């Protein structure tokens, strides 16, 4: 099935693109949600208008979200967890836990779906991308340490902003 995207769809394309998708995906998700229309000759005549409207909406959204992106870019979130001798966690750090920590720390309203990360199952430092818009994916540092190693992690969290300040000067 060929569809014309009317809105940006994550991992599929931007508004105004003509894409070939599975029949079920188009019929059961894209069309009912208003994210796409069938790629008929009449609809294809409206491609330029759809792209221009989407570009203005995308620019306005990027301006709105740029403040949040600056807060989140290189933000550091630390978690303590029980782990085995090899560094494997007895549980995992999920995207929901990261979202809860970021919302509490920065007073934001981020959703779990916005964080691109597989569950963390090892100790150490990991990177998570927060998908605010298509063009703004700030990167968040996630530090996972053993319970009882709080002092070393707090120092790493405090050193990160100091290191960024020296790099900027």
Summarize the structure.
This protein has 169 residues and is an alpha+beta fold. It has helices at residues 23-33, 41-44, 47-72, 95-106, 150-168; strands spanning 2-5, 18-20, 36-38, 75-81, 88-93, 115-116, 120-122, 124-130, 139-146.
Provide the CATH topology of the largest domain. Answer: Ribosomal Protein L9, domain 2
Low-confidence stretches: 159-169
Total count of strands: 9
Major β-sheet annotation: 4 strands, mixed
Number of helices: 5
> What is the correct CATH architecture of the largest domain?
Roll
Report the CATH C-level class of the largest domain.
Alpha Beta
Q: By CATH's scheme, which homologous superfamily of the largest domain applies? A: Ribosomal protein L9, C-terminal domain
User: What's the gyration radius in Å?
Assistant: 21 Å
Estimate percent helicity.
40-55%
- Approximate strand percentage: 25-35%
Derived structural class:
alpha+beta
Secondary-structure element order, N to C: EEHEHHEEHEEEEH
The strand line-up of the biggest sheet is: 4-9-8-6
Total domain count:
2
């Amino acid at each position: 099935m060929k569809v014309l995207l009317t809105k940006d769809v994550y991992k599929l394309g931007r508004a105004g693109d003509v894409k070939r998708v599975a029949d079920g995906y188009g019929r059961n998700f894209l069309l009912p949600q208003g994210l796409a229309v069938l790629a008929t000759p009449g609809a294809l005549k409206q491609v330029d208008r759809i792209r221009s409207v989407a570009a203005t909406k995308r620019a306005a959204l990027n301006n709105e979200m740029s403040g949040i992106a600056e807060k989140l870019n290189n933000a550091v979130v630390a978690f303590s967890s029980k782990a085995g001798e090899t560094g494997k966690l007895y549980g995992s750090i999920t995207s929901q836990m990261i979202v809860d920590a970021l919302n509490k720390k920065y007073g934001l309203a981020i959703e779990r779906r916005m964080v691109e990360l597989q569950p963390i199952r090892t100790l150490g430092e990991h990177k998570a991308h927060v998908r605010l818009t298509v063009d703004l994916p700030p990167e968040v540092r996630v530090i996972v340490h053993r319970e009882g190693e709080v002092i070393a992690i707090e120092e790493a969290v405090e050193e990160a902003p100091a290191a960024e300040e020296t790099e900027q000067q």
